[in-house]
Design a protein that fits this description.
single chain, 71 residues, mainly alpha, elongated
Amino acid sequence: MGVDDIINKGKQLLEQNRDKIEEALKSEKAEEVSDKLLDGAAAAIKRVVPAEQHAKVDEVRDNVDKNVGNA
């Protein structure tokens, strides 16, 4: 099996399971995990950017959060 075959198989599986994948991305567990990851990433970024940028970091974090999980 070549690389193209693997890629095509992945695309095929994605299409066959699109509903399940979308459902999983909007689940409570996805929300929990994404909140932890986003909170950690925002905290790490805030340690290296000036305090004036912290509100922008929070804004970006919140916008990403709206697109992952159920809230």
